[in-house]
Structure formats: structure tokens, C-alpha cells
């Protein structure tokens, strides 16, 4: 059965087919139908607008038609996922999340295009006004966030499992992305191992910090309205003390394990029964709101005082580790004995620019095989000291497959799992393409 072209209002993405098409003013061809939802051709053109603003639209008519077809297929798959997300009560997206992404995207358009170029691009895509464009983007990002949230939820609940790609699939993907220039040029990189020493407070300082955190916990339990006030007065977290200790929304894997183990067990409004101990100190923790896969929380962090004597002791230990490495002591044994578990011990193929802020210019004049240190590393609380073994230093050049292998493996495994899930949704849903993208001309 083929659906007739519908006379509908201004298309805002995938649009539910009305029971009676009356009092509509703008004609928009329906490109495809997914279940009881119509995908208008204007959605395809709006996607082309975005790519055109980034210089990604080909001039060749055949390539342009192929791109339109791919965009339509993506929209169909997206609608299948959105419908599944909307049917699942565990998946929720807020209007604030959507508005933030829309604002960021429109700001990006305005930074890349002059006002007249932006208006001309809208006209070329068949989008009449900036307000109409904003409405379209709102629907686009709401759908995108629903899809992201559904994917995360299905993964966390083991309803969607990664499917590992073959070696041939990974190489094909790498070659394809390299040919397209999507990977760009590899920047100067370093691969290194490190042993990081964190200054440790005295036992008396630890006891004092716990006592302070416990006292603050009792105060906020007695009067939770004072939480923000007490956070400003007591919290040692430089990122949110002045804003009342809010951590915002977060999912599993974003905080240290010791913190998450307690936080994700709490009900909305509930406090942790005692200060939560993590490598950063003692946290007075309250969960304020919860959703299926994320929580909103706030905390007051009290860190034990680290003295100058503690810092000098850590620096001396780092010096002795450097000496031990130079005399042939096994690196792994030193890692097990002294390395700060909160830090990575192996960093492979890291752009030098990405580590310069924390490590300074130590890699600029170093060569592969060098022992470096101790290097003072900045951290949110106290400086740390690193002893570094520079395994490899590479100048800028073309990416090698082995440098992308694990990232490609992870990406394709997740994508394969999602594709299988979409295939199952498609089998269970009515889908029909109504507009041949080969016959679609560029709107004037």
C-alpha cells in the first residue's frame, strides 16, 4: 500500500499522520513513512543545509543524490529508535537538554556564516525563517537525545550487546575514513609509562577531616536548607563549592567507583549515612533526583590537609623511584608498590598538545627511551609527582591502523549492536519510502 502525498503544516521532523488532513497551509512532500509517522522531504533538506554550511555537500549530481538517500535512510533508522524510546517509560529527555543543544548548533551556524549567507542557506534548503529552522532543530535534537538515551539504557541493562567487528571490517573502515580525510593528519604524539606519586596526609589530618565532614553531615540532616551555605563554607571542591555543591546529572562511570557505589543506592532527597570516602577525601553526599540511568546529586568535599612536609616526602619518593629505574629496577614492580591508582600508568599515542597543560614542555626536548622527572602534575586538590618513561615520540604524519585499531573496534562493536537492534525494529514496523531521492532537485 502506498500513502498519498499529504498536505501538512510546516514540517518539524518526523510528523504523525493526522486522522483528517484539514486546515493545513504548506505543502511538504512526504519522503517516507515509518509506522504511523511521516518523514517530510524538508527533513532531508535541513540535513543538507547543515552539511552545506560545513562544506560537506558534493557538486556531482549523482553523489548528491546518494547523499540524500543516505540521509533519508538515517532518518528512517532514527525514527525507529525514537519510537522505541518513546514507548519505553525508562527513557526520558528534558526540554532543557534539548534547548541547550539547539542553542549550541545555531550558534555554530552563525559563527560559520554571515547573516545573509545563513538566510540564503535556509532558502536553498526550503526553510523559510530562522524560527522555522529552530523548530526543526528542536525536533532533530529531541530525537537524537532520545536515541542516545535509549542506547545507553539498553546497553546498561544488557538488552543491547556489542558485536565485535572482524579485522577486515576494521581495516575497511579505517581505509574508508582515511580516503575521506575524516581522520586528518596525526599530530605529534607521545607514548609513555608513568609512576605518579600523590602526597599523603598524616593520620591526624585524616581524622580531623572525617570529623569535620561528619559534623557537616549532621548539620545538613538537621536543616537541609543550609546545604548550599555549608558547601560554600566547608567544601574543598573548587569546581562547585561556590554554587552550593551541585554535581548536576551524571551516569555510571563518570565518578570514582567509591562515590558511585553509594550514590546510585540512594533515593531522591536521601543523604549517605556517613561521609563517603574516596581518594579525594570525605564527601557529604545527597542525591536530589533520579532517573532510570542517571542521578542528580550534590556534595560537600572535605579533604585532609596536606602539609609542605608531606609534599616534600612525595617528591623525595619520586626521586628515589627515578634512581631505581635508572639502575634497572622493574617498572611494573614499582607501579604496584607506589603508583596512584587514580592515574593512568600507560598512555599510548597521546597528542603532545593534549598533555602540555599538565606536563608542561617536558616532551618537547625529550626523545624515545628517555627517563623524565620528577614532573610536577597539577590536580584538583594537591600537586602530584610523576616519573615518566618515554617509550615513543612521533612527529606529525599519517595515522597508522594500529593507532586507531581499539577506537575503531569499540565504535564498530557498538554500532553493530545498534544495527542489529534497528533491524529487529524494522521487521516489526511498517516502513515505506515514498520519494525517490534520485529525482529530487536542489530547492530554489
Descriptive overview:
This protein is of the alpha+beta class and 444 residues long. The chain folds into 3 domains: 7-157 and 422-439, Orthogonal Bundle (Triger factor/SurA peptide-binding fold); 189-200 and 307-394, Roll (Chitinase A, domain 3), CATH 3.10.50.40; 203-302, Chitinase A, domain 3. The protein has 13 helices and 14 strands. α6 crosses α13 (401-427). The longest helix is centred in the first third of the chain and has 27 residues, at 130-156. It is globular.
Which terms summarize this structure?
14 strands; 444 residues; alpha+beta; Triger factor/SurA peptide-binding fold; 13 helices; globular; Chitinase A, domain 3
Short description:
By secondary structure, the protein is an alpha+beta fold. The chain is built from 13 helices and 14 strands.
Mean pLDDT: 86
Net shape: globular
Total helical elements: 13
Spatially, the strands of the biggest sheet line up as 2-5-4-14
In CATH terms, the superfamily of the largest domain is Porin chaperone SurA, peptide-binding domain
CATH architectural group of the largest domain: Orthogonal Bundle
Our count of domains comes out at 3
Structural class call reads alpha+beta
The largest pleated sheet is described as: 4 strands, antiparallel
Please tell me how large the radius of gyration is.
27 Å
**Poorly predicted parts:** 1-27
CATH topology of the largest domain: Triger factor/SurA peptide-binding fold
Termini separation (Å)?
32 Å
Instruction: Find the count of extended strands (DSSP E, 2+ residues).
Output: 14
CATH class of the largest domain: Mainly Alpha
Percent helix, as a range, is: 40-55%
User: Strand portion, in percent?
Assistant: 15-25%
Oligomer: single chain
Q: Could you spell the SSE succession in H and E letters?
A: EEEEEHHHHHHEHHEHEEEHHEHEEHE
Amino acid at each position: 500500500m502506498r500513502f498519498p502525498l499529504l498536505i501538512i503544516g510546516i514540517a518539524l521532523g518526523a510528523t504523525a499522520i493526522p486522522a483528517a488532513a484539514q486546515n493545513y497551509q504548506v505543502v511538504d512532500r512526504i519522503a517516507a513513512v515509518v509506522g504511523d509517522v511521516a518523514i517530510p522531504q524538508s527533513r532531508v533538506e535541513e540535513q543538507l543545509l547543515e552539511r552545506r554550511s560545513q562544506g560537506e555537500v558534493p557538486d556531482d549530481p549523482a553523489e548528491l543524490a546518494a547523499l540524500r538517500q543516505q540521509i533519508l535512510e538515517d532518518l528512517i533508522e532514527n525514527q525507529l529508535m525514537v519510537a522505541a524510546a518513546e514507548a519505553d517509560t525508562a527513557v526520558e529527555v528534558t526540554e532543557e537538554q534539548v534547548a541547550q543543544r539547539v542553542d549550541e548548533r545555531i550558534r555554530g551556524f552563525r559563527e560559520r556564516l554571515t547573516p545573509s549567507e545563513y538566510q540564503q542557506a535556509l532558502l536553498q534548503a526550503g526553510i523559510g525563517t530562522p524560527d522555522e529552522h529552530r523548530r526543526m532543530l528542536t525536533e532533530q535534537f529531541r530525537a537524537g537525545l532520545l536515541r542516545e538515551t535509549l542506547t545507553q539504557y539498553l546497553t546498561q541493562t544488557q538488552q543491547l550487546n556489542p558485536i565485535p567487528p572482524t579485522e577486515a571490517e576494521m581495516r575497511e573502515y579505517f581505509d574508508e575514513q582515511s580516503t575521506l580525510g575524516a581522520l586528518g593528519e596525526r599530530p605529534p604524539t607521545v607514548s609513555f609509562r608513568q609512576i605518579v606519586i600523590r602526597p599523603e596526609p598524616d593520620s591526624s589530618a585524616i581524622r580531623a577531616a572525617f570529623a569535620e565532614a561528619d559534623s557537616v553531615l549532621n548539620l545538613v540532616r538537621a536543616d537541609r536548607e543550609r546545604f548550599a551555605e555549608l558547601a560554600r563554607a566547608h567544601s574543598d571542591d573548587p569546581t562547585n563549592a561556590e554554587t552550593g555543591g551541585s554535581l548536576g546529572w551524571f551516569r555510571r562511570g563518570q565518578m570514582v567507583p567509591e562515590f558511585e557505589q553509594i550514590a546510585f543506592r540512594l533515593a531522591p532527597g536521601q543523604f549517605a549515612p556517613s561521609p563517603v570516602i574516596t581518594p579525594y577525601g570525605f564527601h557529604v553526599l545527597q542525591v536530589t533526583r533520579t532517573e532510570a540511568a542517571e542521578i542528580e546529586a550534590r556534595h560537600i568535599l572535605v579533604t585532609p590537609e596536606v602539609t609542605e612536609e608531606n609534599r616534600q616526602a612525595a617528591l623525595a619518593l619520586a626521586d628515589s623511584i627515578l634512581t631505581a629505574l635508572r639502575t634497572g629496577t622493574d617498572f611494573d614492580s614499582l607501579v604496584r608498590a607506589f603508583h596512584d591508582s587514580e592515574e593512568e600508568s600507560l598512555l599510548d599515542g597521546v597528542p603532545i598538545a593534549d598533555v602540555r597543560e599538565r606536563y608542561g614542555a617536558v616532551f618537547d626536548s625529550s626523545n624515545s627511551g628517555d627517563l623524565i622527572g620528577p614532573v610536577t602534575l597539577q590536580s584538583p586538590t594537591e600537586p602530584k609527582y610523576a616519573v615518566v618513561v618515554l617509550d615513543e615520540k612521533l612527529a606529525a604524519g599519517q595515522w597508522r591502523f594500529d593507532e586507531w585499531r581499539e577506537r575503531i573496534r569499540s565504535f564498530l562493536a557498538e554500532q553493530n549492536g545498534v544495527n542489529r537492534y534497528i533491524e529487529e525494529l524494522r521487521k516489526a514496523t511498517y516502513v515505506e519510502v515514498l520519494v525517490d531521492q534520485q529525482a529530487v532537485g536542489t530547492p530554489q
